[in-house]
Amino acid sequence: QLQLQESGPGLAKPSETLSLKCTVSGASISNSDYSWGWIRQSPGKGLEWIGTIHYSGTTHYNPSLKSRVAISIDTSKSHFSLNLSSVTAADTAVYYCGRQRGYADYVGYWGQGLLVTVSS
Amino acid sequence: QSALTQPPSASGSPGQSVTISCTGTSTDIGAYNYVSWYQQHPGKAPKFMIFDVTKRPSGVPDRFSGSKSGNTAFLTVSGLQTEDEADYYCGSHAASNTFIFGGGTKLTVL
C-alpha cells in the first residue's frame, strides 16, 4: 500500500525559505503514470494546489506561486521536496504531499499533512 | 487561476440525497473530463472519492456519484448517513498542466 510521509520544520521565519520533504513507500516513485505533488491548506480554508514533479524531473506549478516554488525529486532515495521562498504569514498552512495521475490530475494518495507556521 | 466555485454549505437529513455543485470555466471543468472530488473530516487528510467526473475508486460507496454539465460538475450523495458529514472539495485538471481545487462545501447531516 502506497504511503507518503511529510517531514520538515514546523516553524519558518518570515522572508526565509520553507523546505519540506515527502518520503514515498509501498510503490515506485519512478512510475511514469504519476507525478508527485504538494497541496496546502491554510487554517480554516480550502485546498490549494502548489505543484507537481514527475520522476523525469518535469515540473508544473500553480501560476500564483510559481515565482517562489521549486519542487525536486531524488528517485534513489524515494523522496521529493518542496522549497517555498520568501515566506510570509500567509504561507502558514498544513502542507500535504500526494500522488497525482499524469502531470496534474486527481490526487489519489495523500500524506497525513504537516502544519507549518510562519512566525518570527 | 481562481478557485472553482462551490456553495459554502449544504445539508440534508439521513436517508435523503444532496447535490453539491462545482463551477469552473472553459479552461478547466469545461475543457476536460478530469473532475475529481474529495471528502475531508476535521483534522484529517482529504480522501479521494470520485475521478474522471463519474468514476469511484475502489472502496468508495456507490452512494457517491458524480456528473458534469458544461462548466459545472456535481457530486450527489444519496442515502445520507451521519458519517457523510464533512467538507467536500472538487478539483479539476486545468490548462497548461495545472490543477485547481474548489473552495469547499461543508455538508451537514441534520
Architecture overview:
The complex is a heterodimer of chains A (120) and B (110). Helix content of chain A is 0%, strand content 53%. Chain A has 120 residues and is mainly β. In chain A, strands 2, 4, 5, 6, 9, 10 and 11 form a 7-stranded mixed β-sheet that branches. A 4-stranded antiparallel β-sheet of chain A has the order 1-3-8-7, with no helix packed on it. The mean pLDDT of chain A is 97. With 110 residues, chain B is an all-beta fold. Helices cover 0% and strands 45% of the residues of chain B. Chain B has strands at 9-12, 18-23, 35-40, 47-50, 64-69, 72-77, 86-94, 98-101, 105-109. In chain B, strands 1, 3, 4, 7, 8 and 9 form a 6-stranded mixed β-sheet that branches. A 3-stranded antiparallel β-sheet of chain B has the order 2-6-5, with no helix packed on it. Chain B starts with 8 loop residues before the first strand and ends with a strand. The model of chain B has no long low-confidence stretch (mean pLDDT 97). The chains are: A mainly beta (120), B mainly beta (110). Chain A binds chain B through residues 37, 39, 46-49, 52, 60-64, 96, 100-113, and chain B through 1, 3, 34, 36, 38, 45-48, 51-52, 57, 89, 91, 93-94, 96-104.
Q: What Rg of chain A do the Cα atoms give? A: 13 Å
Count of runs of 4 or more consecutive helical residues of chain A: 0
**Distance between the amino and carboxyl termini of chain A:** 39 Å
Mean pLDDT over the full residue set of chain B: 97
Radius of gyration from the alpha-carbon trace of chain B, in angstroms: 13 Å
Structural class of chain A: mainly beta
Q: Characterize the biggest β-sheet of chain A.
A: 7 strands, mixed
Largest sheet of chain B: 6 strands, mixed
Task: Compute the number of helices of chain B.
Answer: 0
Give the amount of beta strand of chain B, in percent: over 45%
Alpha-carbon distance between the termini of chain B?
35 Å
What is the overall pLDDT average of chain A?
97
Oligomer: heterodimer
Percentage of residues in strands of chain A = over 45%
Helix content of chain A: under 10%
**Roughly how much helix do the residues of chain B carry, as a percent range?**
under 10%
Q: Residue ranges of chain A: pLDDT <50 for 5 or more in a row?
A: none
